[in-house]
Every structure is written in structure tokens, then in C-alpha cells.
Amino acid sequence: MTDGIRSGLAQYGDAGLSFFLRKAFIKAMGYSDEALERPIVAITDTFSGYNGCHRTVPDLIAAIERGVMHAGGLPIRFPTISIHESFSHPTSMFLRNLMAMDTEEMVRAQPMDAVVLIGGCDKTVPALLMGAASAGIPAIMEVTGPMMTGHFRGERLGACTDCRRLWSLYRAGEMDDAEIEAAGGRLMPTAGTCMVMGTASSMALMTETVGMMLPGGAAIPAVHADRLRHAEATGARAVALAAEGLTPDRIMTQAAFENAFRMLLAVGGSANGLIHMTAVAGRLGIEVDLAAIDRMGEETPVLVDLKPSGQHYMEDLHRAGGAAPILKELRGLLNLDTLTVTGRTLGEEIDNAPTEVGQTVVRTMSDPIWPEGGLAVLRGTLAPDTAVIKQSAANPELLVHEGRAVVFDGLEDLAARIDNPDLDVAEDDILVLRNAGPRGAPGMPEAGSLPIPKKLAARGVRDMVRISDARMSGTAFGTIVLHCCPEAAVGGPLALVRTGDRIRLDTPARRLDLLVDDAELAARRADWRPPVHAGAERGYLKLYLETVTQANRGCDFDFMAKAGGGNSEA
Ligand code: FES
User: Fold this and answer.
1) 201: CA distance to ligand 1 center in Å?
2) N or C: which end of the chain has fewer CB within 10 A?
């Protein structure tokens, strides 16, 4: 029995009056008494005129509503914040927690028996999962789905791996103004999320694996008719979820998160997936052990041949069967008895999934595209609380490298000097960016993929070791060490590095070390002062700066995790 329209009444001190007023007001929406007696399935409307990744949300809502109505429920949509990567100043990550809070409180505040979460663009899926995990009512995710690929001069293009590749060619003088402008018009040919294995694709696959999305949903292109059929099925299933009272905490268990991280490793997914799923787990009081994930990586090869680690795009993965062939291949490494939104276990869903004969996008365990998981967790004197490298998208020759640090003190310093012809830099140097972490920037921008200095790019240098406390788009490639914890802005060792210091990266040994003696570092620390941000005395920025956690704890606000959640490495 569901509470429907009677749940969570506004408080007037008279429950009868509260329900009388509620019913009177909602009659203005044109609902009949019969409709209002049905279980309510709310739908988060994350459409925004700024968000091309969510352009199809109105169509998805219509399909979900159809499914809800067929199954005997009453669909009611409500708006939540919508975040697009390129329309979020200073950075989308700064706003993720705000969207999570908005979602949680609006789900809690309004009468609903279940909620369908529509997300897609990078930060929206984790924000919705975080909010739904905390709100605690039955919830199910529908992602908008990836874009189709574009074409330019006979070449297939995908956002945003090819955005970055083309931009480096432009910086190196290999494309002129007209060519880069023309290419820019071809990169995003349809609605949908970035169609490589970036954060959106990684989060979609992790969401299906953790059990919060109906099977097959992760890879269906945004403009494919299958996407609407999946949305309709999601709406229908939400009505059943409401009746069963199947809440996210019964689905997203420790074992289910392990499965999700296993998927992230096997697809060569975005390092952002580590941060986001750690934050979601924290909302349920579940600790994420990065060292354990790194150990999982040793037995989990990269199976999916998708850019930036491989060749293909998400529409190819959909044709290959989506998440199913990856899960089938990983079967022996997964916790198969975890419950999913279908009410069946992950193992049952894997067994039920059809096999796509002849597909070439998902490799076998014995013939992977990279022998280990895509992500490696580092530790050392430069990152005592861990750092992360996406080794599957790195230059193998640079995975073990010692070099001279060339330090940039923040994003402004980087922009001001990186292309200066007088910059003292050589191709075997290590570029270091600091004050770009959660509190430093603030919002931990995707600036970790530092551009190759123009004078080196012009000489054909395409990769260098780059180290920062920033994040990186999952679509980027290169030998890039991210998420150095603690970040420079809270006094992590990154704050003490000076140009000319030696740094050693040893990825197989999982080490990242600053080769400077302790006495010298202590002397530098005595002179260190934290950065000061304009406007930090009020509003959301104040809340953010005072309470955001480090990357290894998910960058959630420290008061939002359920007791016991976060990261055991903290
Ligand atoms: Fe939305 Fe890439 S910008 S998924």
C-alpha cells in the first residue's frame, strides 16, 4: 500500500486541513480524484536550455509517463538543477553537491512513492544518486544516453577525446583558425552525452552495474528509439518499486559498489567515477577503500575498446550489447547476488542477457586491450593520501619517469605562462599544477590535462608527465596524475614543490615521490600560506570551502555522508 498524495503533508498543525489544502491546490493541475488515488511516481525534470546532453529529456519524460500510466501509477514531474560541463562557472564539480542537496530535499519534501531520476551529463548522475540515496525512497535511474559520432574530413569524431586532440593539433599549428572552427561544428552532431568513455559513459555503466538502472540502459544512444522503450520500461518498473518498497540502500550495498568499481576498471573509465561513486557510497555509510580498488585493478583488465583508451565509441558498444558482454566477461570477478532495481540479482540479469555474436568492441579476459584496470592508485611523499593515474590512456614509456618539476601556482599562472616562449621547460620535465583541488580552485576543475607548452607542441611533443590536485575529463588522454591528496590548498606536499625539484613517478610500484629532503620541506612549510578566495565570506561558496572533503573521500560535504561513510584512507 502506498501513501501517494497523502505522504509528507505540509505542517499546519491540522493534518485534515493540510490534506484538504493539498488536494484543493493539486486540482488546479487538472487531475481527477481517480488519478490522485494512484501511487505517485515522480520524475526529475533535468531539462535545461543550457544542457544539450539533456535535450531529449522532454521525450524521455513522455515515455516514462507512458510506462507509469500503463502500470497504474500517476506520474508527476518536478524540476531539479541541471548541470552541463561547459556552462558551469567555475566548474560543474562545484555545483554537484548543490544538485544532490536540491534533489534530496525535493524528493523528501514532495509526495511521491518512487522517483525516476533522469540524468546524463557528468555531474548529474552522481548528484541524483547521492540525493536519492539520502532521501531513501524507491528510485530508478534513466540516463539520457550518448551522442552519435560526428565526421570531419572522412574521420569519425567523438566528444571530447577528439575535441582535445584537435585542439592540440591547432595549438601545434597543424590546423588553422578556419579548420578548427569547422571541426568544432562537427563534434556534437546530436543530443546526448559525450560518446567516448568519459565520465558520463563511465557513470552510466557503473549505475547499471550497481543495480540502479534497468539492464541495457547504459549505452543506448540518446536519439535511438530503444532509449524511449527503455524509458517506458523504467516508468513501469518504478510503479512496482513503489509497491515493493525497494529502496536504494538495499540495492547499493558494499558488494554492489565493488561491482561498479570493477566495471569502471574494466572499461578504462574516468577517474571521476572514483570520486563520484565514493560520494554516493558515503551517503549510505559505506566506506570505499582506494587501495582495495587498486588491488582489484591488478586482476581486472581493460576489456572495452573505446576512446580514449581504445578505438570505438558508445554507439558501437550499444551495438555490441551494452554493459551485458562486459558483465558476462567479468562474471567470475563479480558479486552476483547483489539486488538490482528489477528485483532480480545481477547474476540473474547477466544470465538473462542475450549474447551479441561477432561483436569486436568488448574483448575477452584473455585478449584485453590493457592487462590491468584502467586506473591505478598511487601513494608517496607527493601524495600521502593517494593520487590517481589513468594508465590505460597514458604513454606507456612515461609510466616510470623521473624529471624536473616545472610548477604552476594555479590556473591563472598556468594560463599566463604555459605558452610563453621564454618558459624554461623541456620535454622530459614534469609539469605540476597546484591550487586546483576541491578547495583550491575551488571546485576541482578538469584542468589536470595541462596543455603541452606551445613551443614543445610545435616540436611534436604530444605527452609529458603532468601532476596536479585537479581532476581530468574522462575523455582526455596522456600521462596525467590527478587528485593529489591532500591538495595544495590545505597544505598537502604539492604546495611545497618548487620548479627544479626532482619528482619520480613509478606507476607499476604505485609510487609518486617528491625527491626533496624533509628538512628543506619543513623550511618551505614554515613560509606556506593557504590561498584566499574572494567572496568566501557568504553563501554557497562559504559552505563549499568550509565543508568539502578531499578527492579520496568523494568531495562531498563533510556533513552529508551517513555515519561511517566516506573513505577509509582519510
Ligand atoms: Fe555532458 Fe560531456 S558535456 S556528458
Assistant:
1) 9
2) N
C-alpha cell at 245: 518498497
How far from 495 is each of 162, 370, 452, 569, CA to CA, in Å? 33, 34, 22, 20
Q: Where are the alpha helices (DSSP H) in 71-111?
A: 92-109
Number of H-type helices and E-type strands within the chain: 20, 16
Ligand 1 center to residue 50 CA distance, Å?
A: 12
Ligand 1 centroid distance, CA of 122 (Å): 6
Query: pTM of the predicted model, to two decimals?
Result: 0.96
Phi-psi region of 81 (alpha: psi -120 to 50; beta: other; left: phi over 0): beta
Mean pLDDT of 490-518: 97
* Cα–Cα distance, 474 to 37 (Å, whole number): 45
> d(Cα 265, Cα 333) in Å, to the nearest integer?
12
User: Do residues 374 and 391 lie in contact, with contact meaning Cβ atoms separated by under 8 Å?
Assistant: yes
Q: Which atom of ligand 1 is nearest to the CA of 160?
A: 2
Beta strands in 301-399 (DSSP E): 375-380, 383-390
Q: What is the position in ligand 1's atom list of the atom closest to the CA of 193?
A: 4
Q: What is the pLDDT of residues 238-292, one digit of tens each?
A: 999 999 999 999 999 999 999 999 999 999 999 999 999 999 999 999 999 999 9
Residues forming beta bridges with residue 376, ordered by sequence position? 389
Spacing of C-alpha 525 from chain mean position: 34
